[in-house]
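Subject: mismatched residue count in predicted assembly?

I count 498 residues in my input, but I want to confirm that the predicted structure covers every chain. Input:
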Amino acid sequence: MIKVNNIYKLFERTTVLKNISAEFEKGKTNLIIGQSGSGKTVLLKCLLGLHTPEKGKIFFDNSSLTDMKEKERRKLRQEMGIVFQGSALFDSMSVEENIIFPMKMFTNKNDDEILDRANEVIERVDLTNSNDKMPSELSGGMQKRVAIARAIVMNPKFLFCDEPNSGLDPRTSILIDNLINEITKEYNITTVINTHDMNSVMEIGENIIFLQNGIKEWEGSNQDIFKTENKSFIDFVYSSEILKKARKALKNK
Amino acid sequence: MKIIKNIGSYFLMLLKVFGKFTKWNVLKSLIFKDIEVLIIGSLGIVSVISFFVGGVVAIQTALNLTNPLIPRNLIGYATRQSIILEFAPTFMSIIMAGKVGSYITSSIGTMRVTEQIDALEVMGINTYNYLIFPKIIALLLYPFVITFSMFLGVLGGYVASVSGGLCSSAVFIEGVQIDFIPFHIQYAFIKTTLFSFLLATIPAFHGYYLKGGALQVGKASTVSFVWTSVVIILANFIITQLILA
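Triage response: the counts match. Full output below for your records.
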């Protein structure tokens, strides 16, 4: 479980996150949603330890990330898997090399064990027969799958995904969302997804926090979305007039 | 103020490079890969430039020997001195700042803009050590490139002089051997070793701290070339003052 307690993040004189508190539960897909510039990437980077909040604390299973020494932080990071927006695959390495990279860095497994585990996750993300391909030879969806495989190869306790379906067609987006959701349940991990894709929200949003201008405006699950009366959240969700009318019609029924 | 901040960040980066070390097996393969790209990959351009510049130095020296009292073996002597003392260690390093430096800045910079460095960081890897240390070690072989450059520079001078009828083979070789001070070779290697460190770290600094997108990668490569060249020239002056003056 990840717990965020009253964090503030400033860049020069601009406050990007204001008093954010949230709980990201284990075995659930936790979503951070909001418009571009709402602070969701900054919040994700705070969780990853890439940004340090000026105020407030972040707890990973009761250990405070903000109070950790660099050595402890590195150890914690080995329990994290991350899927970046642009996949962030190492372009000089093949699919297989990308996936075995964390194992080569941090385990004492022999080559056969490493390869077995790599093939296991490659199969899990449906990328069989792509071991020797280079990232540039893969489609966007396949690159995301490789990134997911690399993120889970070390059996992480925490999985972070930054806009996992940006640049993907709706069908592939749903496949990626479902894959992340299945992996979350299968590995019983705490998954935090940063997105503004409403399809993802409706498909897999078990615990959602909505940010606007660095403030947490709303919290709930995908089941609560239709019931909410929060104006900012309604404006975000029903951003088109057609959707607003459809909501009104649904409510009137 | 920005320049002072950058100098501070550069030295902090150096400290972090020698912080937590990457697993030796991984580091070893990175070092060999960098040797191949940065050293072996530079031999072609170094050979061509050195050979022809050596030839030009010999021709220009010969052109200035209008006084019959000045011996023709000065062509060999001047070629050797120019190549060993200045051309091979310093000017070849500036050329390398363009070739190797741009490669280092753009490769690390591209990793920065495509979030590959963030991915390494999140894995718990000391990215400074992982990305920069292998380049420093690989470039320790840079004096070997300079030895190559010295040899080919003098050879170029020899070929230009003999084939151009500027002096005979024996006279040129006599000039090359005249008043030879072995310490000049040491001086050249001391300079080159320092330059190799600058060649690895200044471009790496510009790539590592890059902000923005693809356009900034291009800009950073240019800025890195300018700064590497400036620092090499300043370091050259200081070392020459300290060692030869």
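The CA atoms of residues 85 and 188 of chain B lie 6 Å apart. Marking this ticket as 'not a bug'.
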